[in-house]
Amino acid sequence: MLTVGLTGGIGAGKSEVSRLLVECGAVLIDADRIAREVVEPGTPGHAAVVEAFGEDILAEDGSLDRPRLGALVFNDPEKLATLNSIVHPLVGARSRELEEAAPEDAVVVHDVPLLTENGLAPLYDVVIVVDASPETQLDRLVRLRGMSEEDARARMAAQATREQRRAIADIVIDNDVPLDELERRVKEVWADLVRRARERRPE
Q1: Helical H segments across the chain, by residue range
Q2: Running DSSP on this structure, what letter comes out for residue 26?
Q3: Torsion over CA of 95, 1, 183 and 134, rounded to 10 degrees?
Q4: Residue 103 to residues 25, 98, 195, Cα–Cα distance (Å)
Q5: Which of 6, 107, 116, 202 is deepest in the core (most CB within 10 A)?
Q6: What is the C-alpha separation between 14 and 132, in angstroms, rounded?
Q7: Do residues 107 and 128 make contact, with C-beta atoms less than 8 angstroms apart?
Q8: Distance from C-alpha of 22 to C-alpha of 46, rounded to nearest angstrom
Q9: Do 177 and 17 touch, CB atoms closer than 8 A?
């Protein structure tokens, strides 16, 4: 098995790359999706978050009101640390379960938005960084996600710098390119990952 950490700044196009890797045959473990699952109503994670932040962060259906919770923790490092101390261990445990369930010869791609910020690179055999210029990121966030420019810039500034991400990369995928070029590059990367996985297999 080859474990791959996939990361990139907000708006860099990491989701598109993870989708293309799955098409090639990767087993995808999506940290963001797991982070949502582990705090669904009825889970221990949900109970712990409500205990920490109060019932004001609940939507009418009892689920977490994500925008409200996000606004609460975004500019408060202490509250963010509290939330992370609840969610991160649960995400880690679920990710390991999913990885252990994958076939022995699988290429397992962990899609981890804050891989650089949380110093997680050593956990993976290979780290792939999806890279795009800040101008491209800003354009995508405003045009495709409907963010205000101010909000988009704040989100980008809260993440690791482009240089910090590139410094931990074993492989960089440039996503300032048209989709057909990106598809070609991802296929090249996939061939490399399959070769690495094969080399790791005991004879």
Answers
A1: 14-24, 31-37, 44-53, 66-74, 77-101, 134-143, 149-157, 162-167, 179-200
A2: P
A3: 50
A4: 12, 10, 16
A5: 6
A6: 10
A7: no
A8: 30
A9: no
Buried b or exposed e, range 31-66, using 16+ CB within 10 angstroms: beebbbebbeeeeebbebbbeebeeebbeeeeebee
- Structure confidence by residue, pLDDT tens digits, 111-157: 998 899 989 999 999 999 999 999 999 999 999 999 999 989 998 99
- Tokens in use for 42? 């009825």
Please state the rounded mean pLDDT for residues 6-14.
95
The label of the residue with tokens 């390991």 reads 96
Q: What are phi and psi of 148, to 5 degrees?
A: -75, 155
Q: How far apart are CA 49 and CA 83, in angstroms?
A: 7
Decide if 17 contacts 173 (C-beta within 8 A).
yes
SS3 letters across 84-112: HHHHHHHHHHHHHHHHHHCCCCCEEEEEC
pTM for the whole structure: 0.86
CA atoms within a 13 Å half-sphere pointing along the CA-CB vector of 101: 9
Token couple for 15? 């989701």
